[in-house]
Amino acid sequence: MTSEHTRLVAALRESRARAGLSLAALAERTPYSKSSWERYLNGKSLPPRQAVRDLCRLANEPDGRLLALWEIAESHWSGRAVAPASASAPDESPRPRPQEPPPDGTRRWRLGRSRLLVVLAAAYTVIVGGVAALLFLLLPDSEAREAESLPASVPFSFAPLCQGAACEGQDPMRLICGVGPDTLASYRTATGARVELRHSEKCGASWARTWATEIGDRVDVTAGGPTHDVRIRNEDDAATFVYTEMTEVHLGSTVRACFRPASADGERECFEARVGEPTTTADPPSPR
């Protein structure tokens, strides 16, 4: 599985966890079976585009970011991302230079090597064909797989790619820290934008994510060390979730996020949470 597919799977599993739906519940609410969702969420196969849209709808979140991840994963899955080798025009192709015939010993060595490659290729074909035939006989048919009972929660097999200080300044989704994170605090700004402080216990890191934003808005996060910020650059950013980079945290660390609206007269709004304490939700103060 490519790294692009891995990032898509991580985001799909996060959305599923946020929706709180089992595989059976996903099958009931979408045109895709329980075994199909199991394959999508474990990276065994690439989901259809519509399945991604349906999951976003059930999780009540914008679909722009997940669809962008799907487009990238699909291009690698289908091979469209591999650039074809450029071919020279017939009249521009270089003509091979005549070469001296190789000595007899070299010619015999090349002939022997060619025969060896043919034998190895034939053996490889037989082995692969035999394994494929064996698997075909042993595996149940598609209808049986559809009917078999699957657990409501399938274990996630992708471990985070960083921990603690190694996560500082890194992308939470790229390093698979954004799978099933905790929400430390949720805040609604005066402009209607939403900001959340997120935390991964496995990674020992926190970050902020925002949505319902406007172009030019900024969000930053810090836990007493470096400050990491993200800016809403275009309409695509404004239509989906946008994440800051991660900052290292420990149990009891205070994480602080600040929102800066794009408008010149907008005020900076900040909120914070402590790692290990219950989630908090806050709205902007009412005007007096």
Describe this structure in words.
There is one protein chain. With 288 residues, the chain is α+β, with helices and mostly antiparallel strands. The protein is built from eight helices and ten strands. It has helices at residues 3-19, 23-29, 34-41, 49-59, 64-78, 104-138, 142-147, 235-238; strands at residues 182-188, 194-200, 205-211, 218-222, 228-231, 242-243, 247-248, 254-260, 269-274, 280-282. The strands form two sheets. Strands 1, 2, 3, 6, 7 and 10 form a six-stranded mixed sheet that branches. Strands 5-4-8-9 form a four-stranded antiparallel sheet, with no helix packed on it. Helix 1 (3-19) packs parallel to helix 4 (49-59). The longest helix is centred in the middle third of the chain and has 35 residues, at 104-138. The chain is globular and about 45 Å long. The N and C termini lie far apart (56 Å). Mean pLDDT is 76; it is low at 83-111 and 124-157.
